[in-house]
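[Automated response] Your request has been received and processed.

Submitted sequence:
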Amino acid sequence: MQNNLFTGRIPSSMGYLSYLVSLHLEDNSLSGGLPSSLQNCSSLKTLVLSMNSFTGKLPPWIGSLGNLRFLSIRSNGFEGQIPKELCHLTNQNDQKSTSQISLRAFSKPTGTGHLQTPILRNN
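Generated structure:
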């Protein structure tokens, strides 16, 4: 569903897709916050939200998606700190971690606020 000129918010009904493994919504014109119903997508391994107009804080429940291995939120209007629930992920300088997740947060500074946590990435 990438690059389709979608506008508006992600429908809360997406949360009914509990067996959804990969959601690519990058390069659209989606806006607003992320619906809390997405936390029901417990099989989600890849969540790509890049290049949209999402705003607000990144919700802490993203860190509880136990199967999530790739999260991209770059080029949006998210603000504030990366939630501590995501801080268990691997710091790119930490060679001892066994985490398999990759977080790509900012490719260009479109968010506001202060980034209190290092960018986390493990490829």
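Summary generated for your ticket: Residues 90-100, 108-123 have pLDDT under 50 and may be disordered. The CA atoms of residues 7 and 30 lie 5 Å apart.
If you did not submit this request, please reply to this message.
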